[in-house]
């Protein structure tokens, strides 16, 4: 008995898989269209979150500090990933890898100290931070006699 075509069993299994996926997708879309609700109303087009109608607009202004802290988090998180990869291969890296990791951690620590010193990690504006410092100084001085 001669083969039906020159395609291998892998090719036929891929074709059967693609046809099955397209069939399931078509079935799900068709059933949702047939069985789905057709009600139209005033509140139908309003966006809501967990059944609660939103208040105000979606265009909120965030402080640049939020974005700075988010970028710092991503940067330091990626560095933690690099350190994890180094920790996995520490035996193969030897002393040269240990020194390189130490230099890398030192640079990370120095950059974190620099960001802390310039106030890039401070959420509060400078006036509020000064007010908090004054209040903490008054508390540490104790009651006046």
Automatic annotation (TrEMBL):
GO-annotated cellular components: NADH dehydrogenase complex; plasma membrane
InterPro entries: NAD(P)H_OxRDtase_bac/plastid, NADH_UbQ/plastoQ_OxRdtase_su3, NDAH_ubi_oxred_su3_sf
Main enzyme class: translocase
Membrane-spanning ranges: 12-35, 66-87, 93-116
Stored Pfam families: Oxidored_q4 (PF00507)
Main localisation: membrane
Record field: catalytic activity: a quinone + NADH + 5 H(+)(in) = a quinol + NAD(+) + 4 H(+)(out)
Record keywords: Cell membrane, Membrane, NAD, Quinone, Translocase, Transmembrane, Transmembrane helix, Transport, Ubiquinone
Membrane topology, record value: Multi-pass membrane protein
Compartments it resides in: Cell membrane; Membrane
Gene3D superfamilies on file: NADH:ubiquinone/plastoquinone oxidoreductase, chain 3
The EC number(s) this enzyme carries: 7.1.1.-
Entry coiled-coil feature ranges: none
Any one GO MF annotation of this record: NADH dehydrogenase (quinone) (non-electrogenic) activity
Quaternary assembly: NDH-1 is composed of 14 different subunits. Subunits NuoA, H, J, K, L, M, N constitute the membrane sector of the complex.
Matches recorded under HAMAP family: NDH1_NuoA (MF_01394)
Known function: NDH-1 shuttles electrons from NADH, via FMN and iron-sulfur (Fe-S) centers, to quinones in the respiratory chain. The immediate electron acceptor for the enzyme in this species is believed to be ubiquinone. Couples the redox reaction to proton translocation (for every two electrons transferred, four hydrogen ions are translocated across the cytoplasmic membrane), and thus conserves the redox energy in a proton gradient.
Similarity remark: Belongs to the complex I subunit 3 family.
Protein name: NADH-quinone oxidoreductase subunit A
């Amino acid at each position: 008995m001669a083969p039906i075509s020159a395609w291998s069993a892998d090719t036929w299994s891929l074709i059967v898989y693609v046809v099955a996926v397209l069939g399931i997708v078509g079935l799900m879309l068709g059933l949702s269209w047939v069985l789905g609700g057709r009600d139209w109303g005033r509140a139908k087009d309003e966006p809501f979150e967990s059944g609660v109608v939103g208040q105000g607009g979606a265009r909120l202004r965030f402080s640049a500090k939020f974005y700075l802290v988010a970028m710092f988090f991503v940067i330091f998180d990626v560095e933690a990933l690099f350190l994890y990869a180094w920790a996995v291969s520490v035996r193969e890296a030897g002393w040269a890898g240990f020194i390189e990791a130490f230099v890398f951690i030192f640079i990370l620590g120095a950059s974190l100290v620099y960001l802390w010193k310039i106030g890039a990690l401070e959420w509060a504006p400078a006036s509020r931070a000064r007010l908090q410092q004054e209040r903490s100084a008054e508390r540490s001085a104790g009651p006046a006699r």
